[in-house]
Amino acid sequence: MTVNFLTAEDVQPLVSKVDEVLSLLKASPSKMNGNGTIYSNKQLAKRLNVSVKTLANYRDNRIIEFSQVGRKINYTEDQVQRFLNRHRVKSSYTNEGKGVTA
Predict the structure, then answer these.
(1) Entry pTM
(2) I need a surface site. Which of 53, 70, 75, 87 has the fewest CB within 10 A?
């Protein structure tokens, strides 16, 4: 039976790669098996330029869809897009009769 020992020098390239992956995961929303981006409360609040408390109000009033596992709240890209589409304000301005040529 042979026993091999790893030194800190042997493990350092792996530690560097793991640190790199962790920093990338922390810097951007995670991906959900190709189904779209998943946002945490903090990430979505930043994206929508609202407070985390505002998101809580949206959830409490069923204005935005969300998923919850335990105490963790998540929002998928599809849920966010449906929310944005429902709150889209269309312009009443048309080019007809306004002297604007296309």
Answers:
(1) 0.55
(2) 70
